[in-house]
């Protein structure tokens, strides 16, 4: 695999994991724009652990664990808000994390932080598969059904005895953990961190991958991240016009398929599903 293909593959893997960090709260109807902040926590924690001699796998798990704890600490007060207020609160959290990292000299500050250990694409792919398997399993459990029910009708779900707030906190916390893993993978593949990288645009893209791929199945974010990571690369030959083409593709998709690319109906209409039936 060429160097260019390797970098695209690494970026794609990171984007897929980040898409699932956005998917978990979205599956409960909550829009989280703090994904970049959780990615930054995971990235810097993993980099620090690696710099202190911890094994690469332990460092990545530590990064995911740190962002999970941060997600739990943030979700309990933040999820008291609803709608746009929740979105603004998570965005504010991400900006606070970036500002802290930018001003702490021990973490590199504005100069950035060099990461010790390097991670190749193969173990990154293995980590992505684990995340995908975890999301697929969660979606098949009662917890997954509760998330879908809350997204469709939160008050109605509460009537049937589901502890809505507890499920929402768990979904945002798990998503924060996935974001930390994505940040750790980024840190150890590119071996350099800048606080400026973890901005609102990073969170927005992660949310777009999940929304445009579709929230009805756990494989929607996978499809969304693959397509909307690779399409700009395929349009690279058009120079600056590729951003126009990419924007047109998104607008057309939202007009023609507002529920996302992958829906339950589409899956049931696949030829091999009909033959099995």
UniProtKB/TrEMBL annotation:
Major localization class: membrane
Gene Ontology terms for molecular function: branched-chain amino acid transmembrane transporter activity
Topology in membrane: Multi-pass membrane protein
Family annotation (CDD domains): TM_PBP1_LivM_like
Protein's name in the database: Amino acid/amide ABC transporter membrane protein 2, HAAT family
Residues annotated as transmembrane: 6-24, 31-49, 55-76, 83-104, 124-145, 166-187, 207-231, 243-262
Subcellular location: Cell membrane
Keywords: Cell membrane, Membrane, Transmembrane, Transmembrane helix
Entry GO terms, CC: plasma membrane
Originating species: Bradyrhizobium canariense
């Amino acid at each position: 695999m060429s160097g260019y293909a390797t970098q695209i593959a690494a970026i794609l893997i990171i984007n897929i994991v980040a898409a699932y960090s956005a998917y978990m709260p979205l599956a409960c109807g909550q829009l989280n724009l703090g994904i970049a902040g959780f990615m930054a926590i995971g990235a810097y924690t993993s980099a620090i652990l690696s710099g202190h001699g911890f094994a690469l796998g332990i460092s990545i798990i530590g990064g995911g664990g740190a962002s999970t704890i941060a997600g739990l600490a943030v979700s309990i007060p933040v999820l008291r808000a609803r709608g746009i207020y929740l979105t603004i609160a998570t965005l504010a959290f991400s900006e606070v994390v970036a500002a802290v990292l930018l001003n702490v000299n021990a973490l590199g500050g504005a100069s950035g932080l060099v990461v010790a250990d390097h991670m190749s694409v193969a173990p990154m792919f293995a980590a992505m598969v684990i995340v995908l398997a975890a999301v697929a399993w969660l979606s098949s459990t009662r917890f997954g059904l509760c998330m879908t029910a809350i997204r469709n009708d939160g008050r109605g779900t509460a009537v049937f005895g589901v502890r809505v707030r507890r499920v929402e906190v768990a979904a945002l916390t798990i998503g924060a953990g996935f974001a930390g893993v994505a940040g750790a993978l980024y840190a150890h593949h590119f071996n350099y961190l800048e606080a400026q990288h973890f901005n609102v645009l990073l969170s927005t893209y992660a949310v777009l991958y999940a929304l445009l791929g579709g929230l009805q199945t756990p494989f929607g974010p996978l499809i969304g991240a693959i397509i909307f990571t690779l399409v700009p690369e395929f349009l690279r030959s058009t120079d600056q016009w590729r951003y126009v083409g990419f924007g047109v593709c998104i607008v057309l998709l939202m007009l023609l398929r507002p529920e996302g690319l992958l829906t339950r109906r589409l899956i049931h209409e696949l030829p091999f599903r009909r033959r099995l039936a």
